[in-house]
Amino acid sequence: MNHDLRMLRELGESRMPPADQPPAELRRRVLASALSARGGRARPPRRLVGARPAWRFAAVGATAAAVTAAMLVGQIGHLGESAPAPARAGATPEAARILQLAAYQVTAAPAPAARPDQFVFVESVDSILHIGDLEPAKDPDRRHLATAKLVSQLTRRWLSVDGTKDDFARYLPWRSSPAPVEQPVPSGGCRDGREVIDPGKPDVTKACTPKPSVRADLPTDAEAMLRYLYRPGDDGAGPGYSPDQKAFDRANNIIEQTLSAPAVQAAVFRAVAQVPGVTVSPGTVDAAGRRGIAVGRTGGSFRFELIFDATTHKYLGSNAAVLDLAKFFIIRGMKPTDPSSQTAILRVAIVDRAGQLP
Amino acid sequence: MATVTPVVGEADATIIRESWVDPDRFAALYDRYATQLYRYAYQRVGPQVAEDVVADTFLAAFGQRTSYDLARPDARPWLFGILTRKLARHHRRERADYRALSRSAPLQVVDGPADRVAARVTAAAARAQLASALARLSTPDRDVLLLFAWGQLRYDEIATALQIPLGTVRSRLNRARRKVREALGDVDPARDHLADDPADRLEDDR
């Protein structure tokens, strides 16, 4: 009775691929293509800022191309440091001095007053490395030839102070970079204990607790902050991070999330001064082209840097570099130490409405 | 026979959700489904195009990952749906392939004892008829039939993949199977009743 289906399945069997698995090259191609601009764009994550697990996602609403470093982590995670932290030696004296000065600077002015119904406005320049024009190289390591360019955007974000209103962001062109193609949608607000999961489906909600953008739950003294930076868990960063690198990575995330909370920022700077392996690189340029002095840490395949004004020690932004791109790509026009993602903070202010400029 | 990878460990929806903010998680979805998607694409359009459509499918899925319905733990129908749309561009090629198969199959020279030769020729002829029938099916009917027979999707999974009602899946499948059986020369009036089920007609959107 099922003669037709049996025949059909036999025909299907005769048309099976010779190997059980798809070609290994296909996996590489899919994952590499997802890095290039052709890979399609994801809408920004629900919470515009808080959800970012690591600063390798420099641009909010990053394009697929913008997640180069993140995708590579999946492939090279095991190359990272794995040794446990040595006895606490702390940052180099020079790095510690800069971080202490930055802590003084950030607390020199009082914290901006913010009402629960207001928004924290953050204006930043976000740059991300686009790797494109991939073609297989005739290369024993099966690398791809690629061109790379740093693409920037001006990002304006409005973050609900108490977390009950939708966050909002706007992406604008920056200097020679083209206008960003993707615009985020308002999202993340937790109203009356419910939040919208997918901005495209406003009727579908789930239970939530508001996530204030001015976080009152973070430590403001250095020792407590240090314990917080070394808390268990890998934040989805993969196994390649040493505890020290993870602490440094987390420090940057906290800084980006607490730009309107100087006491927390000061605690972060003082805590980072106690993280081993933190060194100074002078003459670092941020995403907005400002020259500063960087305090950074290299771990596994990554170097992360916090950039400060060389004179005032005001926090300017951060750079991140993937140091072993050359394992996967032969990239024209790029040095291995060039940043693969950057964020420069231009303005932080409190405003009444989403979309309002200070 | 093709086997269906069971969902072990985390639900696909969890992986997709995590990939919103941590895109490298998407590799886990590739590793879970690439084999069956590739096999199905290979059966339909052959090796070269199969690689392209599977790559396109995962890239499209990556781009659409934030619009995935997280209430569905199993992403297999979603991925097969994207793959089906990617295959649509290659229908002409696929049909030409089936037609070529229908012409070439009976001409194969088989050596051996006469009775076995006869059996093989019959089988080859039947296969030619089958390929010819596949070439003549409408694209929506062929999609449903092959998702069922080769992709091994259930009716409800096909409905999800193609975003059509369950009744439409049944009516398309019945129609496609009836045409295949006609081509094979074994018309079964009892089964043909199913295609005339009024419930199917009501839900049929074609």
Summarize the structure.
Chain A is of the alpha+beta class and 358 residues long. In chain A, 23% of the residues lie in helices and 26% in strands.
Mean pLDDT of chain A: 76
> Could you estimate the helical fraction of the residues of chain A in percent?
10-25%
List the total number of helices of chain B.
10
Low-confidence stretches of chain A: 36-87
What is the succession of H and E elements of chain B?
HHHHHHHHHH
Main features:
heterodimer; A: about 350 residues; alpha+beta; nine-stranded mixed β-sheet; about 25% helix; globular; B: about 210 residues; mainly alpha; 10 helices; disordered C terminus
Describe, in plain words, how this protein is organized in 3D.
The complex is a heterodimer of chains A (358) and B (206). Helices cover 23% and strands 26% of the residues of chain A. Chain A has 358 residues and is α+β, with helices and mostly antiparallel strands. In chain A, a hairpin with an 8-residue loop joins strand 4 (194-196) and strand 5. The model of chain A is unreliable at 36-87 (pLDDT under 50). Chain B has helices spanning 12-21, 26-63, 76-87, 91-104, 114-136, 139-149, 155-162, 166-184, 189-195, 198-203. Chain B has 206 residues and is mainly alpha-helical. Chain B is built from 10 helices and no strands. Chains A and B meet through helix 1, helix 2 and helix 3 of A and helix 1, helix 2, helix 5, helix 6 and helix 8 of B.
